[in-house]
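> call design_seq(struct)
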């Protein structure tokens, strides 16, 4: 897991005299003869939401102050004092010696006011050449670059769990369903691997998004850059970005990276929800494929016998929250004029909610499925009856030269014949009866219609045969090893 500093979410209020100390007045208050109404302040304050970006704000400010000193925009001694002061704030926040002051307007105001309290007039030079418009865009990007790899590590962990379980069940029979009807014989390994490959795509989407996040908007100012000789590229390099955003107007109004992240979370959540739906089905008395650990089940307040898959249901139920977060962000920017509008302050709550929801759901689902037990006998029994081997009969006839559409009709005729005879399987028909459907059918068909034989014969790439599923497992294991190393490096 990523060795990251603890975020300051949930810190207790500090003892700053925010309303009496000039350092703690709103950053924009100079133009106003009187202060805002108390209700107005409460309405527009965002620090309770954006406090989790405190360390990101500090890191961005350190890079900015260093650049200001290097460019001669502020004296180097002031830049050094600012950097040292910011490092001290980071240490104290991380250790708990400094608490967040919730009377501050936002996390940027808190950091700058605390800095000025500690180092004096030099602290007032930190905001030179930047606006909160480009500052918040930077903080969000820094935050996402920090938390996305941590989320990706959780995805990899779940993929590893599923691949490990699949390795134990490459020959465990489990019928496949379409339209929730018996379709064709398969294996538990094949089904678990289908879950894993859904998650692999999720990991890749987050990885792709990191490339678009890794552009620094700092130096774009409020919307039109700055007359000061800022070196945007050096700041980007100091912060580990791939480069800078290319248009200052777009830089401060862009929230694509937030929307894309929330969408990636929503697709991950939809996959978890689909998995949970199957967990719920498979734990029913009617299926009995799966038994959840009592540590990840609940009971009923009135029915003593109940063992409910509540955690799977809760994950499934919370999917709407993440979908709502995407719609929240999309609606926020719909028709929004360039450049910055205060509407954009509302981006953080849905962004963080989507992250927190999928983070928790990944943790719970991984623990729940890892501790579950599989009823292999019941799953094997699901492959019998239901005519799931009808396609195998058709393909048997294709190998004997019959056109597939004709072979399909022969197999359907055999199914109908069995149903009319009150039988539940094609193989329950006699050879003479099957020959009435096609003279190409011989005694060898019976061995090929066994569930094990049907699965064994499906050895094409991606199929359920043990040889094929083992290749899929190896592919996932290689993927996890490569990606684990990549995300661990990003987490440092």
């Amino acid at each position: 897991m990523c060795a990251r500093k603890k975020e300051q979410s949930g810190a207790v209020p500090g003892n700053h005299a925010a309303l009496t100390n000039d350092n703690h007045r709103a950053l924009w208050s100079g133009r106003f003869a009187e202060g805002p109404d108390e209700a107005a302040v409460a309405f527009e304050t965002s620090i309770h939401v954006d406090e989790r970006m405190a360390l990101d704000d500090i890191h961005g400010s350190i890079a900015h102050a260093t650049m200001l000193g290097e460019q001669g925009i502020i004296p180097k001694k002031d830049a050094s004092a600012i950097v040292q002061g910011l490092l001290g704030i980071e240490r104290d926040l991380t250790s708990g010696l400094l608490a967040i002051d919730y009377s501050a307007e936002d996390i940027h105001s808190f950091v700058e006011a605390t800095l000025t309290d500690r180092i004096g007039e030099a602290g007032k030079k930190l905001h030179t050449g930047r606006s909160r418009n480009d500052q918040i865009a930077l903080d969000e990007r820094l935050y996402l670059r920090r938390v996305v790899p941590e989320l990706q590590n959780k995805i990899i962990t779940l993929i590893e769990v599923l691949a490990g379980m699949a390795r134990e069940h490459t020959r465990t029979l489990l019928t496949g369903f379409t339209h929730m009807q018996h379709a064709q014989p398969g294996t538990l390994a094949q089904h678990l691997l289908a879950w894993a490959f859904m998650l692999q795509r999720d990991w890749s989407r987050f990885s792709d998004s990191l490339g678009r996040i890794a552009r620094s908007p700092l130096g774009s100012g409020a919307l039109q850059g700055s007359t000061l000789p800022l070196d945007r590229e050096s700041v980007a390099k100091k912060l580990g970005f791939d480069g800078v955003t290319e248009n200052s107007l777009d830089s401060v109004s862009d929230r694509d990276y937030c929307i894309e992240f929330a969408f990636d979370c929503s697709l991950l959540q939809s996959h978890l929800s689909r998995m949970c739906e199957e967990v719920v089905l498979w734990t029913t008395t009617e299926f009995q494929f799966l038994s959840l650990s009592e540590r990840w089940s609940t009971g009923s307040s009135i029915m003593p016998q109940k063992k409910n898959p509540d955690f799977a249901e809760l994950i499934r139920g919370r999917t709407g929250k993440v979908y709502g977060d995407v719609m929240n962000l999309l609606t926020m920017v719909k028709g929004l004029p360039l450049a910055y509008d205060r509407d954009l302050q509302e981006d953080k709550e849905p962004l963080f909610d989507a992250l927190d929801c999928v983070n928790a759901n990944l943790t719970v689902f991984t623990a729940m499925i890892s501790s579950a037990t599989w009823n292999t006998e019941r799953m094997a029994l699901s492959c019998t009856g239901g005519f799931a081997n009808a396609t195998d009969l058709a393909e048997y006839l294709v190998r004997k030269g019959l056109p597939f559409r004709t072979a399909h009709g022969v197999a359907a005729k055999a199914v109908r014949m069995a149903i009319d005879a009150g039988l539940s399987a094609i193989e329950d028909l006699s050879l003479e009866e099957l020959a009435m459907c096609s003279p190409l059918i011989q005694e060898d068909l019976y061995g090929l219609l066994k569930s094990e034989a049907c699965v064994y014969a499906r050895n094409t790439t991606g199929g359920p045969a043990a040889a094929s599923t083992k290749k899929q497992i190896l592919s996932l294991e290689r993927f996890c090893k490569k990606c684990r190393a990549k995300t661990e490096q990003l987490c440092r």
